[in-house]
Amino acid sequence: MPEDTLVPEKTTLKERFLDFYRDFGVARLIIFGFLLFLLASALFLKLPMEQILSSILTRFGMNGILVLAMIPSIQSGAGPNFALPLGITCGIVAATLSIELDMAGFSGLFFSIGVAAILGAITGFFYGILLNRVKGQEMTVGTYFGFSIVSLMCIFWFLAPYKSPEMIWPYGGSGLRVTIAIQDRLGKVLDNFLSFDILGVTIPTGLLLMFALFCLALWVFSRTKTGIALSTVGSNPRFAESSGLNVNRYRIIGSSISHAVGAVGIVVYAQSFGFIQLYMAPLFMAFFAVASILIGGASLKRATVTHAIIGTFLFQSILVVSMPVANVVVADNIADVIRIIISNGIILYALTRKEIGGDVS
Known about the structure:
Largest sheet: 2 strands, antiparallel
Strand content: under 5%
Structural class: mainly alpha
Strand order of the largest sheet: 1-4
Helix content: 55-70%
Shape: globular
Number of strands: 4
Oligomer: single chain
Radius of gyration: 22 Å
Number of helices: 14
């Protein structure tokens, strides 16, 4: 064999760009271009860029863990977890329990996270058993199940035996309030931890570190024996079965982890938002998480931490920038409509692509 055949050919700058173009995908390039257009418009309109960039970082961190919750579900072969409201309600229950027990600060936060993860894992286990009985219809059943859980929890919030005056309706009303303020309890505990400013842009260090911690945990898990088996079951269940893997068992594991992460995610979201929203609030939260990870490059059978990071950043950045730009360009009462059109348009595009997660035009 000639010696020169053993030397790999050097790739040109054009070939490297084409490789990046194929990997990143046309869809994400278009969305990224639209984001750059919005940022340029905001700069041209002399909007407060420091506040916009600070909001982007905050929304990126507060929504990131909810998007990460999609990874175990997709990797196990169950597809995007449209039943995420089940895990979200577990997180909300945990947060309200911390208020009822008069907890605040980091103690209240970590109590909420711990209880949320346990409740999410338990409910995810039973939901995984349900998924094993409806193979092939996971997304349809998940959507219906998520909506049903939210409706069922509306009854729970009305009958919940809480006594804290911060949560119950005043003057003898029944049930819990629709929105519970937690600024003096869990409000921005992570956001303010080690936060600092760079050229007027606030860096929510604790919030980003929490998101990074969960990214690292899921990345490490994906390289463990269980994580590799989970991916094998999702990508090729017949091969996994012939290799001696219990497909149903790993699907349940994926569901349990997904709902546990989702439960923690809503606690992190709420502490940054400053409020806990009950009743119908969790109804459509799964759609934003699903759209984010699909826009990030995930498919119905493969999702990675990188997909979650890219998708969350693109989706949340567009939502943050589009609102102030629309407020200046059009009337205030139309700006919110435009924001809804943009967000729902991204969701619709993510869910109706011919090749989800591929290089599509």
